[in-house]
């Protein structure tokens, strides 16, 4: 088992180029002695600005989404080739905002996962249940389905380039965090699903991030849990003052 903590910031639809450059510069400085793996995922329009700032540092460059097609007549979409051309190393796929606001389903997300892997990108595959699904006792089943379908056809040899992010939808941007115990239970469940699909070694190695109102003051308790291997941070990733302490939790 060789799991390192992986702390990722999803900037969502925030920042101008100047603000992004300032934030990226502050993160490079603040995290340069950080011990974990880091990533920032700015909007497409900011990638070219942020790329040279994080290049050669311990912060990876990520995109928040990607088209399912490689190129062609797809107005408003961004291709894996265009992302790679800008130095993108990782793509976040299946974020709940993509699933629920933009109606991306498991089949589409699975195609994107395969395309990203084929082009050598690391994938952060997000899974997570809605509040009504949790209240109906279906959190495990929903996360299981999203994991199984998201990874359909993915070989065990590709798993090193896959990270799972468990993000309960009711905890995203709401200030409500899952308790470390509740989050850990789902992480353990998802790890069990990976074990069933790919075997115990793969289950032991896969990084499972938690996302949903992660803040400097709750990061350490979450990360202390056996099955929580990192964080996918939204709101608190928009300021170095909050992302750096999360990245250096202890
Ligand atoms: P939040 O967002 O930290 O603002 O809750 C998390 C996410 O959507 O990745």
How do the strands and helices of this protein lay out in sequence?
Layout (H helix, E strand, L loop, with lengths): L5 E5 L6 H15 L5 E5 L5 H8 L4 E5 L16 H6 L4 E4 L2 H5 L5 H13 L3 E6 L3 H5 L3 H12 L11 E5 L13 H19 L1 H6 L1 E5 L4 H8 L6 E4 L6 H8 L3
Parallel strand pairs: 1-2, 1-8, 2-3, 3-4, 4-5, 5-6, 6-7, 7-8
Helix pairs in contact: 1-2, 1-11, 7-8, 10-11
Structure, described:
This protein has a single domain, classed as TIM Barrel, CATH 3.20.20.70. With 250 residues, the protein is α/β, with parallel strands linked by helices. The protein is built from 11 helices and 8 strands. The protein starts with 5 loop residues before the first strand and ends with a helix. The chain has an 8-stranded parallel barrel, surrounded by 7 helices. The protein binds 2-phosphoglycolic acid (PGA).
Short structural summary:
The protein has helices spanning 17-31, 47-54, 80-85, 96-100, 106-118, 131-135, 139-150, 180-198, 200-205, 216-223, 240-247, and strands at residues 6-10, 37-41, 59-63, 90-93, 122-127, 162-166, 207-211, 230-233.
Rg, rounded, reads 17 Å
Q: How much helicity do the residues have?
A: 40-55%
Number of strands: 8
Main sheet summary: 8 strands, parallel, barrel
Bound molecules: 2-phosphoglycolic acid
Encode the helix/strand succession as letters. Answer: EHEHEHEHHEHHEHHEHEH
List keywords for this structure.
TIM Barrel, eight-stranded parallel β-barrel, alpha/beta, 11 helices, single chain, binds 2-phosphoglycolic acid, 250 residues
């Amino acid at each position: 088992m060789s799991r390192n903590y992986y702390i990722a910031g999803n900037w969502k639809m925030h920042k101008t180029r100047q603000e992004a450059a300032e934030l990226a510069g502050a993160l490079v400085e603040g995290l340069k002695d950080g011990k974990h793996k880091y990533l920032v995922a700015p909007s497409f329009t900011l990638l070219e600005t942020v790329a040279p700032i994080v290049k050669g540092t311990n912060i990876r460059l990520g995109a928040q989404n990607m088209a399912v097609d490689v190129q062609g007549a797809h107005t408003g979409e961004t291709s894996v080739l265009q992302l790679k051309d800008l130095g993108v190393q990782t793509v976040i796929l299946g974020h709940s905002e993509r699933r629920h606001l933009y109606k991306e389903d498991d089949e589409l997300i699975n195609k994107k996962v395969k395309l990203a892997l084929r082009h050598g990108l690391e994938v952060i595959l997000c899974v997570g249940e809605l509040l009504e699904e949790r209240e109906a006792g279906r959190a495990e089943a929903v996360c299981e389905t999203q994991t199984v379908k998201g990874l359909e056809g993915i070989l065990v040899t590709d798993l090193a380039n896959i990270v799972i992010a468990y993000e309960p939808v009711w905890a995203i941007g709401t200030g409500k965090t899952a308790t470390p115990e509740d989050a850990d239970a789902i992480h353990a469940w998802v790890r069990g699903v990976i074990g069933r699909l790919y075997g115990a070694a793969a289950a032991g190695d896969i990084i499972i991030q938690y996302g949903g109102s992660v803040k400097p003051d709750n990061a350490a308790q979450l990360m202390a849990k056996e099955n929580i291997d990192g964080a996918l941070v939204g709101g608190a990733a928009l300021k170095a003052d909050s992302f750096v302490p999360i990245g250096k939790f202890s």
